Amino acid sequence: MLKAVKEIELLLSSDAVSLDADVIEAHSHSDWSTSNSTGRPVAIVYPRTTEEVSKIAQICTKHDTPMVPFGAGSSVEGNFSSPYSGICVDFIYMDKVVSFHPEDMDVVVQPGVNWMDLNKQIAQDGLFLPLDPSPTATVGGMVSTNCSGTNAFRYGTMKDWVVNLTVVLADGRIIKTRQRPRKSSAGYNLTSLFVGAEGTLGLVTEITLKLAVIPQDTSVAVVSFPTIKDASAAATRLIRSGIQLAALELMDDVQMGVLNKHGSAAVRKRVWDERPTLFIKFSGPTQSIKGDILAVESIIKAFNAGEFYFAKTKQDEADLWSARKEALWTMTSIKPKSQSLWSTDVAVPISRLAEIINLSKEDAGKLGIFSSIIGHVGDGNFHEAIFYDPKNESQTQAVMDCVHKMMDRAIEMEGTVSGEHAIGLGKKSCLVEELGPATMNLMKDLKSAVDPKWIMNPGKVFDLPKGARAVAAATAA
Amino acid sequence: MLKAVKEIELLLSSDAVSLDADVIEAHSHSDWSTSNSTGRPVAIVYPRTTEEVSKIAQICTKHDTPMVPFGAGSSVEGNFSSPYSGICVDFIYMDKVVSFHPEDMDVVVQPGVNWMDLNKQIAQDGLFLPLDPSPTATVGGMVSTNCSGTNAFRYGTMKDWVVNLTVVLADGRIIKTRQRPRKSSAGYNLTSLFVGAEGTLGLVTEITLKLAVIPQDTSVAVVSFPTIKDASAAATRLIRSGIQLAALELMDDVQMGVLNKHGSAAVRKRVWDERPTLFIKFSGPTQSIKGDILAVESIIKAFNAGEFYFAKTKQDEADLWSARKEALWTMTSIKPKSQSLWSTDVAVPISRLAEIINLSKEDAGKLGIFSSIIGHVGDGNFHEAIFYDPKNESQTQAVMDCVHKMMDRAIEMEGTVSGEHAIGLGKKSCLVEELGPATMNLMKDLKSAVDPKWIMNPGKVFDLPKGARAVAAATAA
User: Fold this and answer.
1) What are the helix (H) ranges across A13-170?
2) Which residue, B404, B402, B359, B354, is CA-closest to B375?
3) Which residue, of A66, A394, B226, B359, has the greatest Cβ tally within 10 A?
C-alpha cells in the first residue's frame, strides 16, 4: 500500500497526498455514525480531475490497494470507513460546476459540490436540485447512498435526478453511463447501477443532474395529534388523497420536547405541543396551494387533529421547517459527551407505517433511555435515534437488540432495512435477511465482474469473499 | 434445441408447447417493426408460473438453447425476434393480478397483464399505472423496453414505477430484486438493471408496480402554429415555466392532414388546421387546472399561436386525445400493402429539439415519400414515420441513410438513439456510436456475469461475442 502512495505522490504532486495522523483520523471516524471501523487508511489523496482519479485507480489496482471514496463524511452507516485500510480518495477539490444548461434543465458537476451551494448558484435561473439530505452533503456522496430527505415525497430520491455519471472503474477505465437526454431506453441502465452502490463498483467523478423548476410559492403547516396512530393514519389518508404535497413529515412527542428545550432561537419563538406532530409543506402556484390547504384541513379533521398552525411570513415558514430539518443537529448537540447516538432508519409499505412506529416506540421506551422518532411518513420511511453509553455493555447490547428487532419487523412487513442511508458497514447482515442469498449472490456476481479484485470500498454492502485481494493486502499491511 | 423442446413438453404438458408454423410465424415478425430477423424459434412455450419458467431455463441452459421472451409483440425494434432461433417464451397465460394493495398504492402482477386491463380493474380504488404505450402492450414488455408514452412528461418512464421484479436467470435461479417499500437505498438497484434490459439478463415473471392517484380532473387543449420552430419554442418555454402539465405533444402538418383524411369518425368531427400542432393535457384539482390554462395561454401567445381549442365535454376530451393516441394505428391502416413503415425515435436535450425536428423534417422531405413527425416534446423525444417500398433498393437505402443521419445528429446533440423503444436488433450499431466502446464493454461484462452462455434473448442490445454458445447452437440447428 505504501508503494502505491509513493507512486501517487510522484504522479500528482506531494501536496495531493496526506499522511498526517489527524487528517487520517478525520477521514475514518464520525460521531454521527453508529458504524465506525477500527481500520485506518494509509493515506488520503486529493485528485483534481477524472484523469487523476484514473491514474490513482491504475496504481491501486497494480498494488492490490483498496480505494475508499470520501465526500463530506456525513453518512451514518460507516460508508466511508476503511476496514481494510487502503487509500482514501477525498473529492474536496473536485468541487466545480462543469457546465450549467438552464434551457435543458440540467447541470454537470464534480462530486465534491455541496448541494446547497449548487442550489444557490442556480437559483437565479429558477431551478433547483430537489433533494435535501444533510446540509453538509456533497453530490458524490448523495449519488453513492441514493440519498433523499424531506422532499422525496414529491420529487423522489437521488436515482430519479441523475442523468448520467462519469465513473472510474477499479482498473482505471473511464466510462460515461449515458449522454444527456432527459429520457432514454438505450441499453442497460448503468446510471442506476452506480447510484446507491456506495463506491463499491467505481469512483464517480462527474455527474449530470436533472433540475426542477422552483415552485412559484410554498406554505408550511404544523398540526399535532393525541397519538402516533392518529398522526400516521392522517398521513396515510393524505397520501391516498392524491393532493400533491411537497413534504409530509412526522416528529414524535420526544422530538417536540427537544424543540421546546433545545431548539434554535427561531424555533423556540413558539411553544410546541409535545405530542406527535405532522409538518406539511405545500408548493405550487399560490392559488393551487389555497385549494390544497382547504382539502388537507378537511381530511385531517377526522383524526383528532389539533389546531393547524400556518406560517404567517416567509421567515416564519423557514423557521417552522428548520424545526424539522435541524432535529438531528439538535440531538447531536444535546447528547452528553460520554454517550453515543444510534441513528437508523427503515421503510415499509405505507399501510404498515403506524404499526411499526408504534411497536418501535414501545420497544425503545422499554430501554429507559432517550429515544425519538422522526419520519418521512410520505414515503413510509422513518428514523429512530437513541442515546446510549457505549461503555455500558449490557445497555449497548440492549440497544442493538432493539434496533435489530425494528429491522426484522420492517423485513417481515415487506419493507427495507435502509430507506435513505444505504448499507455501509452497519447493515450488511440485515441486507442478507432482507433480500436472501440468491439476490445477494447476483449482486456479488456483478461486483466481481466490475471489480474482480474487490478493491473498491471493500467491506461495504457485503462482506468480502475469502481470498479477495483487498483482504490479503490489509493483512499484509 | 429440439431436445430441449421435448424435455419442456414432458415437463409442462404438451399443450404448453406449440410447433405450429403459423404460431411460430406470428411470434417472429411484426408489421409495425422495421427490424425483423429471418430467424425463427423452433417452438413457442407457454409457462403459467415462475417455477415453470425456472424449469424451462434449466433445460435451455442444459442444451445451450436461446430463450426469447414474448409479451404482446408490439415492440418496434425487433426486440422479440429470434435471430439465433431457440425457444420463444410467451407469457400470455401469466396474465394474473397476483395481489392489489390499494392502501400501499401498489399492485403485484404477472408479465402478461395488459396495462389498460389493469387500469380498468383498479380504477374503482382511484388508482392507475400512469404509463401509456401501445394499447396492446403487456407489463412484461413495458418493463423490458423501459417504455413510456404521452404521460411520461409528468409521470416519468417505466423504471420510475417498478418497485421490484421477480426474475428467472439463465440457469433457472429465481431472484427477487427488492421487497415492497416505495423507497429504498439498500444494496444495488437490481430492479433498474432489469428494466430496459430487453430480457437479455433474465426472464421477468412477476412485477410490483407503484400506482398513482387518478387526478381529480383533466382538460385537453389543441393549438397550432405556423412553423415547427414556433411550436417547439412554445413547448420549450412551457417546460421551463414549471407549470405541471400532464402531457405535451406535437404533431406535424403531415400528421394533422392524416387526421382530416383518415382519422376515426370521432376525430373527423372537426376540421384540423394542417399545421404543426401542440396537444396539451392538464390534470389536477379543477381549480388548479383553470389557473394552469390561463398561465399556458399567456405563455404561448408570444409564439404566433393560433386559437386554442378546448375540449367542451369529457367525450370531446377523449376524442381530442385519441387523435394523438391513434396516430400510429391510423398510419398503419393507410399504408399501401406493398409498402413498409419505418417508425423510429430519438431524444435530445430540450434546447436542441426544435433544431433536430426541423433538420429531420427537411431531410425526410427530400426523400419525396410520405414522412411525418410526432413528438413527446415535453421529454425532448420524438418519432419519425416513413412509408417506403422495401423492394425498391435505392429507396430503402435512402430511407436508412436518412434515419441514420437523424441518429447521428441526436448523438452529436448529446441525445440518445432510443427514447422509448429500446435497442432490439435495429439500433445496435447506433448504441455503440452513442456510448462508445468502454461503456459497451462494461455492459457486456455485466451480461457475461449474469448470462455466461449468452442464451438470454441473444443478439439484442449488442452482438454476441465470437464463440458464444447461442451462436454455436444456432449454427448447429
Assistant:
1) 21-26, 50-62, 115-122, 139-145, 152-155
2) B354
3) A66
* pTM of structure: 0.96
Query: Are the C-beta atoms of residues A1 and A34 closer than 8 Å to each other?
Result: no
| Neighbouring-strand partners of residue B222 | B279, B309
Question: What letter does residue A214 receive in the DSSP assignment?
Answer: P
DSSP code at position B366: H
Tell me whether A244 touches chain B (CB under 8 Å).
yes
Q: How far is CA A402 from CA A90, A255, A385, A396, in A?
A: 35, 19, 11, 10
For residues A261 and A266, give the distance between their C-alpha atoms in angstroms, rounded to a whole number.
Answer: 12
The Cα A188–Cα A170 span in angstroms is 20
Query: Please, what is the average pLDDT of chain A?
Result: 94
Question: What would the grid cell of residue A133 be?
Answer: 439530505
> From CA B417, how far away is CA B381, in angstroms rounded?
10
B145 Cβ under 8 Å from any chain A Cβ: yes
**pLDDT tens readout for residues B264-295:** 888 888 899 999 999 999 999 998 999 999 99
> Terminal CA-to-CA distance of chain B, rounded, Å?
7
With beta carbons less than 8 A apart as the criterion, state whether A199 and A456 touch. yes
Question: What is the C-alpha to C-alpha distance for residues A333 and A423, in angstroms, rounded to an integer?
Answer: 25
Backbone angles phi, psi at A324, to 5 degrees: -75, -45
Q: Do A349 and B461 touch (CB under 8 A)?
A: no
Please give the DSSP secondary-structure letter assigned to residue B238: H
Helices in A270-349 by DSSP H: which ranges? 286-300, 314-325, 327-334
**DSSP string for B273-319:** PSS-EEEEEEEESHHHHHHHHHHHHHHHGGGT----EE--SHHHHHH
Q: Are strands B43-45 and B87-90 parallel, antiparallel or unpaired?
A: parallel
B258-283 b/e (C-beta count within 10 Å ≥ 16 → b): bbeeebeeebeebebbbbbbbbbbbb
Strands A87-90, A43-45: pairing is parallel
Q: How far apart are CA A89 and CA A415, in angstroms?
A: 33
Nearest CA among B227, B455, B267 for reference residue B362: B227
Q: Which of B182, B345, B450 to mutate to test the interface with A (most CBs of A within 10 A)?
A: B182
Q: Residues with Cβ < 8 Å from B22, sequence gap 6 or more?
A: none
Counted across chains A and B, CB pairs separated by less than 8 A come out at 287
Q: Return left, alpha or beta for A242; rule: phi > 0 is left, psi -120 to 50 is alpha, else beta.
A: left
Nearest residue on chain B to A241, alpha-carbon basis: B213
Phi, then psi, of A383 in degrees rounded to 5: -110, 140
H or E element at residue B193? helix B190-194
Return d(Cα A424, Cα B185) in angstroms, integer: 11
For residue B131, give every residue at least 6 positions away whose Cβ sits within 8 Å of its Cβ, in sequence order, or none.
Answer: B115, B142, B147, B148, B149, B151, B152, B155, B157, B158, B161
Which residues in A lie closer than 8 A to residue B443 (C-beta atoms)? 187-188, 190
Q: How far apart are CA B161 and CA B274, in angstroms?
A: 36
Chain B window 382-421: which residues touch A at a Cβ cutoff of 8 Å?
A: 411, 414-421
Q: Provide the β-strand partners of residue B251.
A: B277, B374
Distance from CA of A196 to the nearest CA of B (A): 6
Encode pLDDT of A387-435 as tens digits: 999 999 999 999 999 999 999 999 999 999 999 999 999 899 999 999 9
pLDDT tens track for A43-69: 999 999 999 999 999 999 999 999 999
Cα A453 → chain centroid? 27
- Residue B163 to residue A415: CA distance in whole angstroms: 11
Is the dihedral angle over the CA atoms B55, B57, B60, B66 positive or is it negative?
A: positive
